[in-house]
Structure prediction request, 697 residues.
Amino acid sequence: MQYVPIVLFALALIVGIGFFVMNIRKLSRNINLGKDVNRTDKKPERLKNMMMIALGQSKMIKRPFSGFLHVIVYIGFVIINIEVLEIIIDGLVGSHRIFKAVIGDGIYAFLIGTFEIFAALVFVAVVLFWTRRNVANIKRFMSAEMKGWPKKDANYIIYFEMILMTLFIVMNATDVPFQDAGIGNPISQFIAPLFNSFSLEALHTIERTAWWIHILGILTFLNYLYYSKHLHILLAFPNTYFANLNPKGQFTNLESVTSEVKLMMDPDADPYAMPAEDAEETVPEKFGASDVADLSWVQLLNAYTCTECGRCTSACPASLTGKKLSPRKIMMDTRDRLEEVGRNIDANKGTFVDDGKQLLNDYISPEELWACTSCNACVEECPVNIDPLSIIMDMRRYLVMEESAAPQELNMMMTNVENNGAPWQYNQQDRLNWANEE
Amino acid sequence: MKVPTMADMMAQGKQPEVLFWVGAAGSYDDRAKKISRAFVKILHQANVDFAVLGVEESSTGDAAKRAGNEFLFQMQAMMNIEILNGYEVKKIVTCDPHSFNTLKNEYPSLGGKYEVYHHTQFIQNLLKEGRLKIDDTTLKGKRVTFHDPCYLGRGNEVYESPRDLIKRLGVNLTEMKRNKSTALCCGAGGAQMFKDAERGDKEINILRTEEALETKPQIIATGCPYCNTMMTDGIKFKEKEANVVVKDIAELIAEANNL
Prediction:
């Protein structure tokens, strides 16, 4: 009989983790639909960024209030996971609070006491988060792209955390021997009296129930990640590691263009030359991006990492002045389209079947793309180094080089650059006139 | 005004210490031409041996690149690189953060490797080397705020050079709420300078001008010809031309030194 809970627990663990691994593999497959870009250089600098920005939350705290609350939830989450380890061992071997015997009463009490304090702090923090999202009318949580699922998703995460923290405290409060020992219960000792009228047996049932729901809740939450913006708790680490390290002002030089321009400018090149024999099979590379597969895997990783906090959008000059562009929406659209492509591949036995849709137009409109000033405010703001600007630029490249669909005024500007070497229609021979005009 | 060209220099068998990259705005835009002249006056005062490309200079391709036309950008870049390398240019200074960024960051992988300075960095070096002094009495006590150009600030993390120069003018520098890495764009970047803005409820340059006006400035200092245009337009829109002027840091230094 006593093996039943152990077997059930092991089963829950296998199903929970197995399903999670399956989704992570899907995630990784989807990210790898992106084009290759080399981010294996400068390992120490990358590691340092990951340590400072993801682990150390250095960019989060630039907005002190929400940053501080986030740090509490983050630390709480990380250290309470030590407790989960104990729960897993207890569940698998049928022990109760196994760490207590292993590490001794004193240290155990200190650990659990710390967890309890953090559980309470996390609870308070997420209540404040909920208030910010639902009551405080904070502009960046009210934008158009936050309507519907994104808002629900954010609230579900908050409710999950509230419930998990409550279960953890209740589990401790109804653990009679634990409360009798009277150490390591700085919070639950105040909850325990609420259960005074219950019989010992009832208390044990409540404790077991809380324990079970707590661990099943954690496994559920783990599997919720893939369907949620909450993926950032995992992807923030690779995302900060693989982020661009060049100056933000530096945009990539398309290599496919370089080879063509070199050929065009080579005075010895024969304009009527037949293509080399081996060149026949090669399809000319598409310039810029119109769909997710034209983006790099780092940009796709960016999309999955985005937690929709909207700091980018709240700093974007276009968005601040009422234009349609929202860098956060660029990231959300990229992710949603990538998910759609992923589902298409799943439904068609591993190959993508054209669905007549693409990221451009069906998700992101040219109007949004042309509103960008390339000022890098969104890139600077992102607490996990996501680069919405690079996606905007790649899509502009597609519009201009594949579709010749630049706004008319920009076409004129570009014609001037081509003909006069300046964005305005001035004669190149007048370029030094300024020197003698005073 | 004496502005030697690289062609002149070469004819005389000379190699100047630095090439002044004037840029399209600095060459053709009436407002920006004044910045070019102010900077040349400073170069003369510091006895800097410089030259420009003159009619051989062409657009860096920055605006074309940001508009999405990578072809045009790389054509411009390769043409310019051919000329710059032909003159064996090693060191470049420019008053335009967009040229600065493109020459410094985007030309190297196309074969153009130079030491590139924004004019505020270059002037800062002249001060350090003792080749130039700034008179801190002319503009003493004026209220100044500085608008960070995106491609100088966030783009290349140059925040202190312009501020250091402003402080040496003896003026009273007051920061806007959004400054340095959080500075708001003037609205000109990303080729926006050359097109109308998309539909919205405000122009970006008006918003930024309002932020600048909150500091009650007498002078809005900039380090970019495009920012200068946008802020100047903003001041006109707000009808504050009588009380507030928009000046490039080079112009302020030339004014302080009575050049």
Observations:
- The CA atoms of residues 137 and 170 of chain B lie 7 Å apart.
